[in-house]
Amino acid sequence: MIQLRALALPALAAIWFTLAGAAPSVAQPLSAEQWAAIDRVEAYLSDLRTVQARFVQSSSAGGYAEGTFYLKRPGRMRIEYEPPIPYLYVADGIWLTFWDGELEQRWDAPLGSTLADFVVREEVDFGGDVLVRDVRDTDGWLQVDIRQADDPQAGQLTLIFADDAQGLALTAWEVLDAQGIRTRIDLIDPQVGVELSNRLFVAPRRDR
């Protein structure tokens, strides 16, 4: 998993691809109803092409930030924080990059080594390299807890969907870290199917 400046970054920047050192995971057997819900999530995410949304990020440790989220599947994602937070995350289809605008420094990791890859890949599949720990469907909300199958101690990502008569809609995700701190990103008024320039998914480099 990508570590970046994980020890230096507060929960403010703890999103799905900066997981580190959570407690060991033991997956529980899932019911037929839970597997049916997983099938629906796979189909929804696989059909999703582009999303743009404002977001609010909050932490059980008291961190707070706002910004803009962009998704262009397959392969591309951008999470851009508003000032004074100088951080930016960009997935360009090959690499996942963290950019610290204050230091003008970047850190790169292969996209396929991160949980971000699960969401941006062409076909979303909860088998193979993803371990589903739990599925909860209550009061119009569907939540799926996942970990990396080959490194279940690397952390947990919970995907949160609104579930109503119109179908599923990704509305939030939550990360659980080693200290038990939960960091949640809620999407505000997400726009689906919008045109997004590929230039959004080019990570900055330090001027020389």
Description of the structure:
The chain is mainly beta. It has one domain: Lipoprotein localisation LolA/LolB/LppX (outer membrane lipoprotein receptor (LolB), chain A, Clam), CATH 2.50.20. Helix content is 10%, strand content 43%. It is built from two helices and eleven strands. The chain has helices at residues 32-47, 116-120, and strands spanning 50-59, 64-72, 76-81, 87-92, 95-100, 105-110, 130-138, 141-148, 156-164, 167-176, 182-192. An eleven-stranded antiparallel beta sheet has the order 6-5-4-3-2-1-11-10-9-8-7. The longest helix has 16 residues, at 32-47. It is globular and about 55 Å long. The two termini are 29 Å apart.
Question: Short summary of the structure?
Answer:
The protein is mainly β and 208 residues long. It has helices at residues 32-47, 116-120, and strands at residues 50-59, 64-72, 76-81, 87-92, 95-100, 105-110, 130-138, 141-148, 156-164, 167-176, 182-192. The chain has an 11-stranded antiparallel sheet with strand order 6-5-4-3-2-1-11-10-9-8-7.
List keywords for this structure.
208 residues, mainly beta, outer membrane lipoprotein receptor (LolB), chain A, globular, disordered N terminus
Structural class label:
mainly beta
CATH class division: Mainly Beta
As for the CATH topology, it is outer membrane lipoprotein receptor (LolB), chain A
Question: Radius of gyration over alpha carbons?
Answer: 16 Å
SSE succession: HEEEEEEHEEEEE
Widest sheet: strand order?
Answer: 6-5-4-3-2-1-11-10-9-8-7
